[in-house]
């Protein structure tokens, strides 16, 4: 078979329809990188059935459609068609011309055509299977395929030998056979599961059907006697009803009489109760008011004490302030007298100064009568001298005054400093006393606050303890009630367990006789223990098997059966310990189940039991798994192919075979295990409650002791609070007195500090220094002027002689004026000092008077408040006495009414007792009559509903007359029916249906087993065929490889080996090569070029053993150097007679061996085109 042509249309970069004709020999395809050469090979693989978009360098299959370019729009489909010449019947069942077409659309739809007819992908794959021409066969060889040979594992290389050997179809057949075997096995497992389930259903159904037939017969006889019983009881009931009607009439008359008497007494008692309640309410109101008055009285007493303490403090404060004010007023009067004397002296000095200034002025006018020019010069000099002399005298006088004032200031400063030192010395003890008093007061206040806080804590603790005692008492009552209920329930359960209630009659009778029957161990329910969380699941798993009786051996079981048979007491199932065999779950299924998080465990592992019963319990529970919920059950059931019984914690069941059981009844009934579990829980609960009651009683005693201790401590603390209140009051009073003394002393010090500031000599010293400088300057100036004056005077002695007398007098007056000015200045300074001290005393007096007025105002208010408190206290005392007397009177009235109420209640109880007794008689008669009437109605209704008869018709059909004999027969029949237990009337039909299906599935199981054996045999035959072909082909390929290697390499040697020669179905292939001049080593240890050439040699060996019609080589020689490329291309010529080669290459050595050469180019961006190529141009 030859490859004739390949037509590409819209596949990847081949946007236009492109047809490539292939000739015998070697066809070369060349072109630059990215031109689309490899797309030709991919189109060939795609049309031969490639399914992986990734291997075609895409993410999804529609990616092979031309995606468009800058100048072309995308296409909506891709199509590749390949044509073969099959005239040599390489494919025997196909015609001479063979065309395969594959299309794909943007929507993802695709189709295959074989000679124009639609076929499946599977048909194309099967067509080329084992021909060496498949999509992954060694006929399509790329550089990546070459690399995969030396990079892959030895196990992966066996695919090349398998394809060469043509065993892929056997492997496919084996895969199909394995799938069929799995399906057959699964089907067989399901049939086995269903058969197991049907067998489990069939056995009890057979027994139920037998019981149901027995039940129908006994029920017929029971209905006959029951009809007679109903007739006889109705006849007796009608007679009893007439008697009860008469008794009820008499009881009603007597009840009416007692009822009226009780009503009268109740009315009287109610009136007394209302009076009692009225007086109680009034007494509560009066007592509440009395408590309020007591509290008000105590608060007023406290306020009065505080008011008295404030009053005493205010009196002492007023006395202190009054004394201070008097002292300040006396000091001020003394200073005012001194100031008046000084002021009088100042006025006298001012008058004397004015007189002297007048005389000087007169004399100065006379001096002006001298000769004009000389006199003016002398006068000017004299004035200057006089002026400067006067300034000097004033400065000297001021210096003198300052020196005198400094002496006085130093004296006063020393006195003030002495007073200040004395005051400071007196302040230190006061400061210490004040600090100590404050500390003591703060400590006392803290102690008081602590004691009051402790009192509050004691009150809270008393309240809390009282609440705890009440809660503890309530808890004790609740616990006691719970224990009583639990005790009653436990007694009921123990009574049920002792009488074996809930067991079938046969089981119950055997268990009652266990002391007389040898070898009875007990029921299954008695011998196992289970946690409460698993009880419902285990009870559901066992069901009626909980009533099976475990015995020591077969003899004990036989003895039990004989006992039941002889006494006709029913049936029971016995489980001998010696004959029972444990059952378990297949380990593989168990492991699969345990892989699910919802798996809890095997049912037998979740119960506890005696070791002697292990086989019995394993038999009953060893094949059942307990799971969390129904979802987990369905998951695990699927995992184990529905071959295991699964039960959830809520009791839902997934049976082997897949059926599911679940739901809930309208009323909840406890089974045997749950009752046993409840008894165990109740016993534990009783022990716990007894312990808790003891703990509660002890805790109550502790709380009462704590309360008594808290009350004692609270009383002691109350005494301490009163003592601390008294201490605090005394300390506060003492602190106020010390604070007052300290404040007065502090104010005195402040006054002394201000005097020190006033006596500060810094300014006076500065002024004195300035004045001395001024005196020195004036003295020098006066001396100069005096010299000049003397010169002038020598020239005018004559003129001056006449004026000498007046001039001397003028100087005298001026000297007197200077002296007066000095005295006036001193007097003014002294007056200013007195005025400053008076002003300070005035301020002190104003502050003292303000403080005195404020305290006096507070004293007036406090006196008024004290009077009001006294009035209120007297009024409260009066009201307190009145309410005390009123309480005493009302208590006497209450006690009297209490005695009257007690007597009335006693009479009322007697009347009620008589009424109740009569009422009980009436109710008893009414109940009897009601029950009898109801019974008659039920009997009549039962006749109508059950037997569809009236009483008259039933009386005609009834033949029995002795009710006791009828009831005896009914009792025997009922016992027989009860012994049958729960009867399933549908079991007869259900058994026939299940049995028929069981027989059918049993036949089907045999057929499936036969089919399974046939498949296994067929698979063994195919494995043998694969092994034979694989070994033969491997030997041929190994021989060819060893022969070709030295030819291609120009020397050396190589060989193939099997990694596991004893396992031909799975063995890998190891390649060992020894290039010329090197040692033998594995393929992975060779250089890159050597590995590639070795892999190509192996491919040539495959072609030699199994020639194929054509082979595609996509740059297979890319890793070879030029010399090896030459050997490679030359060797292609050795095969081109039998094999048609399509070679994609960049190497000149390969191109030179090509018979036909095609070029691929992209003249238009993104679009590949085929062009003819000149071999000379390329080479």
TrEMBL record:
<feature type="region of interest" description="Disordered">
    <location>
        <begin position="849"/>
        <end position="869"/>
    </location>
</feature>
<feature type="coiled-coil region">
    <location>
        <begin position="167"/>
        <end position="194"/>
    </location>
</feature>
<dbReference type="Pfam" id="PF02463">
    <property type="entry name" value="SMC_N"/>
</dbReference>
<feature type="coiled-coil region">
    <location>
        <begin position="686"/>
        <end position="741"/>
    </location>
</feature>
<dbReference type="InterPro" id="IPR036277">
    <property type="entry name" value="SMC_hinge_sf"/>
</dbReference>
<comment type="function">
    <text>Required for chromosome condensation and partitioning.</text>
</comment>
<feature type="coiled-coil region">
    <location>
        <begin position="434"/>
        <end position="475"/>
    </location>
</feature>
<dbReference type="InterPro" id="IPR024704">
    <property type="entry name" value="SMC"/>
</dbReference>
<keyword id="KW-0547">Nucleotide-binding</keyword>
<feature type="compositionally biased region" description="Polar residues">
    <location>
        <begin position="849"/>
        <end position="862"/>
    </location>
</feature>
<dbReference type="InterPro" id="IPR010935">
    <property type="entry name" value="SMC_hinge"/>
</dbReference>
<keyword id="KW-0238">DNA-binding</keyword>
<dbReference type="Pfam" id="PF06470">
    <property type="entry name" value="SMC_hinge"/>
</dbReference>
<dbReference type="GO" id="GO:0030261">
    <property type="term" value="P:chromosome condensation"/>
</dbReference>
<dbReference type="InterPro" id="IPR003395">
    <property type="entry name" value="RecF/RecN/SMC_N"/>
</dbReference>
<comment type="subunit">
    <text>Homodimer.</text>
</comment>
<protein>
    <recommendedName>
        <fullName>Chromosome partition protein Smc</fullName>
    </recommendedName>
</protein>
<dbReference type="GO" id="GO:0016887">
    <property type="term" value="F:ATP hydrolysis activity"/>
</dbReference>
<dbReference type="GO" id="GO:0005694">
    <property type="term" value="C:chromosome"/>
</dbReference>
<comment type="similarity">
    <text>Belongs to the SMC family.</text>
</comment>
<dbReference type="GO" id="GO:0007062">
    <property type="term" value="P:sister chromatid cohesion"/>
</dbReference>
<keyword id="KW-0067">ATP-binding</keyword>
<dbReference type="InterPro" id="IPR027417">
    <property type="entry name" value="P-loop_NTPase"/>
</dbReference>
<feature type="coiled-coil region">
    <location>
        <begin position="227"/>
        <end position="405"/>
    </location>
</feature>
<feature type="binding site">
    <location>
        <begin position="32"/>
        <end position="39"/>
    </location>
    <ligand>
        <name>ATP</name>
    </ligand>
</feature>
<keyword id="KW-0175">Coiled coil</keyword>
<dbReference type="GO" id="GO:0007059">
    <property type="term" value="P:chromosome segregation"/>
</dbReference>
<keyword id="KW-0963">Cytoplasm</keyword>
<dbReference type="GO" id="GO:0006260">
    <property type="term" value="P:DNA replication"/>
</dbReference>
<dbReference type="GO" id="GO:0003677">
    <property type="term" value="F:DNA binding"/>
</dbReference>
<dbReference type="InterPro" id="IPR011890">
    <property type="entry name" value="SMC_prok"/>
</dbReference>
<dbReference type="GO" id="GO:0005737">
    <property type="term" value="C:cytoplasm"/>
</dbReference>
<dbReference type="GO" id="GO:0005524">
    <property type="term" value="F:ATP binding"/>
</dbReference>
<feature type="domain" description="SMC hinge">
    <location>
        <begin position="518"/>
        <end position="637"/>
    </location>
</feature>
